[in-house]
Amino acid sequence: MSTLASLANHQVRLASRPTGQPTRENWEFTTEPVAEPADGGVVVKTLYLSLDPAMRGWMNEGKSYIPPVGIGEVMRAGGVGRVLASKNDQFAVGSHVMGSLGVQEVASFSADQIKRAGLARIDLRAGSETQWLNVLGMPGMTGYFGLLDVGQPRPGETVVVSGAAGAVGQTVGQLAKIKGCRVVGIAGGRAKCDWVVSELGFDACIDYKAGAVKDGLKEHCPQGVDIYFDNVGGEILDTVLTRINRKARIIICGAISQYNNTTPVQGPKNYLSLLVNRARMEGIVVFDYADRYPLAVAELAGYLKDGRMKSKEDVVDGGVQAFPETLLKLFTGENFGKLVLKVAQD
Amino acid sequence: MSTLASLANHQVRLASRPTGQPTRENWEFTTEPVAEPADGGVVVKTLYLSLDPAMRGWMNEGKSYIPPVGIGEVMRAGGVGRVLASKNDQFAVGSHVMGSLGVQEVASFSADQIKRAGLARIDLRAGSETQWLNVLGMPGMTGYFGLLDVGQPRPGETVVVSGAAGAVGQTVGQLAKIKGCRVVGIAGGRAKCDWVVSELGFDACIDYKAGAVKDGLKEHCPQGVDIYFDNVGGEILDTVLTRINRKARIIICGAISQYNNTTPVQGPKNYLSLLVNRARMEGIVVFDYADRYPLAVAELAGYLKDGRMKSKEDVVDGGVQAFPETLLKLFTGENFGKLVLKVAQD
């Protein structure tokens, strides 16, 4: 009890909505005391936070798949933590949990808020804390349901995935290999490309910083592209559209190249390739599959265990103070693997 | 026999590939004698030709869903005709046929060519000659399979169709009404809009020449848009993307606003609405459904017979000489109903 009273909860709040790339001025740092949980409530110590491209969208005003973060609110973030205090039978003190903790050192939840935050216990025997934010977390679920449900891959098909070394990309590519597909990644830089081929087992990877993506697709997808899992949008999406096969599926998961635009989003000018090829372009939002997460986690944890799937997290050990700068790594492509902010030692 | 020898077959051939809107210089007029059919062959007198937006695409070089028309070749065109001479048991002299006749007064086919041209007998009790080029022909088939197979409408959903008074649009809208949907058209001009509402029974029609399409969608689609059947592309596609519902289906049938562009096609800058709304955009090419045409024709002929479906053809009585100018009416939006060129009296 006295433990909680001694804690100062450092937080990062959204101070203003950015135009283009977020700057330090868009954030406010606050400190709050920590109170005992109410009946049915729980208090969680944040250990690791997931930093994701989608965060940039949550900072904008306007209708989207979830409401924007309000001005003055603690920035939304998924994370892994440990229960510090509990008045809820589901969450024993000391157990590990995952959910929407926010960019703060301590997250307190009422019984209602537990549900809204999607707070759930996690089993560290299935994966490490950072793997629970990667292949066993939202990115993994996004890759799993995006590829399998929307993409419906068949053995022998060619799957191309952009952001190949990123959180979603690594799950998509490895899962497509497991399902019997030819897999070609697109990533920025030799190191990332080498890694997805030599470590993750992709058939090839195109370094978009080193040469024309079009030439890479011609070389590495001699049978054309059956599935394109798009995390980036922009020119790369347009280029892949010129190489798709009949009845191809393009999964729109994100468009990181466009998120900090101050000009209008660049629409895919080659979209009529969908017509010529009777192809389809479809969006995925992972929350729609929440009732099937446990099955997907079990399958993916099995692959981690038998070594068919690997994961790489880029862990920045900086605490919540480092959140603003760390987030920007996603947009420069500086991160290598799923970007995670370490907030506290377990 | 002497009848054929006395005929001069006037033809329109592609002389050069247009940049932007086709001009008279892109065409060549030729005259050829007509020979007796070989064994298994047939000679057909062209009565009506179908003029379609897709023709503009066939004039371009490059890979598409069918090869381009070659320079010097008779321009490809679907049409209805009457058999003048036959050495094929399937086609009696005097019977009416439909198929790829080309822009010429007489079409001669070997046994092989009959198949490639998709030549088939038609029954004028099911529909008139021009209806066989409209609701019972390619536009009708495109609307039928695009709406039902790709769009999968459910009763009560809101269907928006652009080019509403055009060949495909009129089938789509009326069929969607029959299937229990709310139907809102988009067309150019008061006359077309009034007609699709009062004659075809659409719930509303937005005149894109008279005001903002966005305002029209807000007013007439208060429950949002579940299915958008797109014949036009460009700004209208982008505007509809801002009004789609979760799990919406966008059928990409054409992009007539972009076909004569000399600048790159305008990509839908609001395509990320597909992501936010878990929606899908999918292309349709009617030829994929050829084995199911007879079923669709039977269903649509039934609706024509019982009065639930009407059709309107804009018949230009100009002969093949009038082909170049008549085609342009599609791109100015001057045609009212399915554009048909009358080549000869039956």
From TrEMBL, chains A, B:
Pfam families: ADH_N_2, ADH_zinc_N. Residues 11-114 form the Oxidoreductase N-terminal domain. Keywords: Oxidoreductase. The keyword Oxidoreductase applies. Signal peptide: none annotated. Residues 1-24 are annotated as: Disordered. CDD domains: PGDH. InterPro entries: ADH-like_C (IPR013149), ADH_N_2 (IPR041694), GroES-like_sf (IPR011032), MDR_fam (IPR045010), NAD(P)-bd_dom_sf (IPR036291). Residues 167-299 form the Alcohol dehydrogenase-like C-terminal domain. This is NADP-dependent oxidoreductase. It comes from Caldimonas mangrovi. The lineage of its organism: Bacteria, Pseudomonadati, Pseudomonadota, Betaproteobacteria, Burkholderiales.
